[in-house]
Amino acid sequence: MAIRLEDKKQIVSEVNEAATSALSAVLADYRGVTVADLTALRKTAREQGVFLRVVRNTLLKRAVQGTEYECIQEALTGPTILAFSMEDPGAAARVLKDFAKGNESFDIKALSVGGQLMGADRIDVLATLPTYDQALASLMSVMLAPVTKLARTFNEVPTKVTRAVAAVRDQKEAA
């Protein structure tokens, strides 16, 4: 189906706008995936804050020019679905990786972070990145550990004194 020039310009500007504010990008081949499955994928992506779009490769090449995702042009062959992580760098990778587990015909082609193109074998690295809340919780636990240990140490001093006094009392009573 032919797309009008105005529609093409709108698609390019929309994808370009998403690319300028995205944290990471993942490309996948969606051949053989049913429309119902793609609809479910789109719903999951929306919930996770992921920009998901099927775009013609020629339009996608124009859209990513001048952005840090210009490197994905090498991977643009065949039907491509594009996912940009907007809030969490690993969100798009997690969404597409989970979807690929249930759909054997869905293949992840490549991903890009920080202007570097990586192969599909690196998807696990990006997908296992902690979310903002998980990273914050981990940081807080690291910051809280020394304070907790100090409090335990201070609490141990009176406990040792109490044990020593009890031991002396027991010894005197036995004698």
TrEMBL record:
Pfam families: Ribosomal_L10. GO terms for biological process: translation. SUPFAM superfamilies: Ribosomal protein L10-like (SSF160369). InterPro entries: Ribosomal_uL10, Ribosomal_uL10-like_sf, Ribosomal_uL10_bac, Ribosomal_uL10_bac_type, Ribosomal_uL10_CS_bac. Signal peptide: none annotated. GO terms for molecular function: large ribosomal subunit rRNA binding; structural constituent of ribosome. One of its GO terms (cellular component) is large ribosomal subunit. Keywords: Ribonucleoprotein, Ribosomal protein, RNA-binding, rRNA-binding. Part of the ribosomal stalk of the 50S ribosomal subunit. The N-terminus interacts with L11 and the large rRNA to form the base of the stalk. The C-terminus forms an elongated spine to which L12 dimers bind in a sequential fashion forming a multimeric L10(L12)X complex. Forms part of the ribosomal stalk, playing a central role in the interaction of the ribosome with GTP-bound translation factors. Belongs to the universal ribosomal protein uL10 family. This is Large ribosomal subunit protein uL10. It comes from Pseudohongiella nitratireducens. The lineage of its organism: Bacteria, Pseudomonadati, Pseudomonadota, Gammaproteobacteria, Pseudomonadales.
